[in-house]
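Memo to structure team: turn this sequence into structure tokens by end of day. - J.P.
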Amino acid sequence: MKKIIKRITLLTILTGVLVTGFLGLVLYNVKDMLFGTPLVVNAMTDGSNIDGTFVPITGSAVHAAHITINGRPIGIDRQGNFADGVILSPGYNIVEVAETDQFGKEKTKTYHWVASASPTVADNSASPYQR
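Reply from structure team:
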């Protein structure tokens, strides 16, 4: 009698572990469909004052279908990494990094930067050809 109870208990525990593992695996694989793909952007902090006009933007978005920076499509490698940059106008700029994942969910990160004019811009107002 005790041997039968031990066998049923062991079978119940083993079944419970397998079912729990299977449900955990299913939930792990469905999390991107439920919550969207995480978007990680490595760039200057929002609200920064920037010397110069070029800002490199890198990041990752695993399982993303499309990445855009200000509406311009950016290439993504197989691991979900991307790298690009933007050229800012002197003054206040808004840069938007957006992703659409394979399930149609969209995520957007918006940055507000103030760029100072580059001191290397050529300015020759005394040219004899500009009269």
